[in-house]
Amino acid sequence: MEGANALTFMLSWVSHTDVQDRDYKFLRKAVEEVYEGVECGDGGPFGAVVVQNDQVVVSCHSMVLKNTDPTAHAEVTAIREACKKLKQTELSDCEMYASCEPCPMCFGAIHLSRIKRLVYGAKAEAAIAVGFGDFSADASRGTGFYQKAQLDIKRADSCRTGL
Ligand SMILES: [Zn+2]
């Protein structure tokens, strides 16, 4: 996918009032990672940030191409890096901000890491619209399951990130 498409992808967010201003601050950071990842050619246009006590622990983007690893999605990479940095296998006191609705694998990782809250920007459908396969997006429609599992999930869906 080209950078211009990634930009359109992120700008497709519409205003949503359900997400707090602090959420936008961290979402913006996740979107910055999108641009960095695309620029470096590390992977697709996806970014994820792990936040603990209002501080960014790690800020990552997809490393699928760089690591030739189909599981190196931004969210999984962020969880791995955050756990390493915090020297713990649970992130129950952390929140995740993802540029796009996580795929099933990432939801699984988020679930296992016990991250307490997830805020994401674009819907998975937006990724399909700009050329990403729908097989991962299809399965990510099961977010209700994770919401039941005590994970607070919010869709930010806004252009208020200022990009
Ligand atoms: Zn994923």
Automatic annotation (TrEMBL):
InterPro entries: APOBEC/CMP_deaminase_Zn-bd, CMP_dCMP_dom, Cytidine_deaminase-like
Chain ranges of the CMP/dCMP-type deaminase domain: 21-131
GO biological process: purine nucleoside catabolic process
Annotated PROSITE patterns: CYT_DCMP_DEAMINASES_1 (PS00903), CYT_DCMP_DEAMINASES_2 (PS51747)
One GO MF term: zinc ion binding
Keywords: Hydrolase, Metal-binding, Zinc
CDD domains, sorted: nucleoside_deaminase
Family: Belongs to the cytidine and deoxycytidylate deaminase family.
Name this protein carries in UniProt: CMP/dCMP-type deaminase domain-containing protein
